[in-house]
Amino acid sequence: MNEAAHSPHVLYLYWNDHMQEPSVISSADLALIRDFIPGKEPILSRCKSGPRKSKVYSVAETSLRGNERIYLNECVDSNWISSKGPFVRRFEEQFAQQAGCEFAVACANGTAALHLALATLGIGPGDEVILPTFTMIATANAVRYTGATVKLVDAEPKYLNIDVEQLEAAITPQTKAIIAVHTYGHPAPMHRLQRIARERNLHLIEDAAEAHGAEILGQRVGSFGVAGTFSFYGNKIVTTGEGGMVTTNNRQFADLARRLCNHAFHPEQHFWHEFVGFNYRMTNLQAAVGLAQTERFDEIVNARRRVRTWYDKQLKLIPGIQTPLESNDCKCVFWMYSVRIDSKFGCSSHELRTLLAQRGIETRSFFVPMHLQPIYYNQFRGRRFPVAEDLCRSGFYLPTHESLEESDIEWIVQQIADIHGEQMGRSR
Ligand SMILES: Cc1ncc(COP(=O)(O)O)c(C=O)c1O
């Protein structure tokens, strides 16, 4: 980071009149992209049989099995519930350690973490930030909040992360940063991205919202870039209900991020503000839950890896389903167990999701890529990103959480096998 990057004039919250109106795609263009426009979510019924008879399999479930209640009681007993309470610093220290980083700054959510990281780097109007089109909307919106321009590249089809060759081709003199997203818990190719960032003098940020604990050659995600950002939303691997974290090994970056997170209060002169800061603070209550969760970090991550092994073993026997791949140098965390459906299965991914919902199994479709979103469509009009589009059409994820047993997975996969059989029977 250089001095200029910290000058206050480049901290800029993007807003204009157009953002008060919904973004519109013309009807001719809507017809072109109709395959990607999400339909209504399938209606979830209760399971008619199996280990959860009369209940449902939610796609995600929060599990508060550690010291959450004890720490929350401490907050109430001590009367410390705001961001000034002691759990915030304890959570930051414990989380930094888990991410293999020296510093961590707790904040309100994963989107705030991304915005805070970009603002700390001084990203602003006139700058370009490259990110994958196959991501959740927060990655792109955080760039937009700064007034910088979103530049998109496609995903690669094996691990669903950013396509590095396309990324290199997209760099221009205006490019200031890359955001690598560790999609669904599979690390992006950080060593290659680090080399590009070094050679082209770009900031590298990791959006690790879905990848707490994932590793490349034993190094944890969140520790490769100048900053890593995490989400602690209720469905995430570590949760605080709502919450986020910025990790870094750069003290100067950490100090500025911490200051911007708290209205940019001057450290010595109260009510004296040299930067436009934000109120992105995390409360002591959230941090109390986060600390308890982080104490069980390895247990939580291993439980998800177990769920992955059970799904892999059972799903391999069903044609037309592609299970998630794991690169040899990586340890994925399986935030969600994702599958892709091809024509050999006998029905589309959306039809399968609907039939599973009727049997009590909730699923979630893959991202709708950024270039097809109404708010970004006109900027990328006419551009195609075929891998992301194919993923959008063919992929979804299955229930993935700590409470699932092998018998649950067997039953879920049996339902998929039965649907496959019925669909193939119908098409004969
Ligand atoms: C890849 C990615 N980035 C950012 C976010 C935003 O996190 P939050 O919902 O905590 O703001 C999410 C949330 O699901 C995400 O999946």
Summarize the structure.
The chain has two domains: 27-61 and 297-427, Alpha-Beta Complex (Aspartate Aminotransferase, domain 1), CATH 3.90.1150.10; 64-295, Aspartate Aminotransferase, domain 2.
What does this protein structure show overall?
It is a single chain. The chain has 428 residues and is an alpha/beta fold. It has two domains: 27-61 and 297-427, Aspartate Aminotransferase, domain 1 (Alpha-Beta Complex), CATH 3.90.1150; 64-295, Type I PLP-dependent aspartate aminotransferase-like (Major domain) (Aspartate Aminotransferase, domain 2, 3-Layer(aba) Sandwich), CATH 3.40.640.10. It contains 14 helices and 14 strands. A seven-stranded mixed sheet has the order 1-9-8-5-4-2-3, with helices on both faces. α4 crosses α8 (251-261). The longest helix has 22 residues, at 406-427. It is globular. It starts with 26 loop residues before the first helix and ends with a helix. Pyridoxal-5'-phosphate binds at residues 109-111, 135-136, 138-139, 181, 207, 209-210, 231, 233, 244.
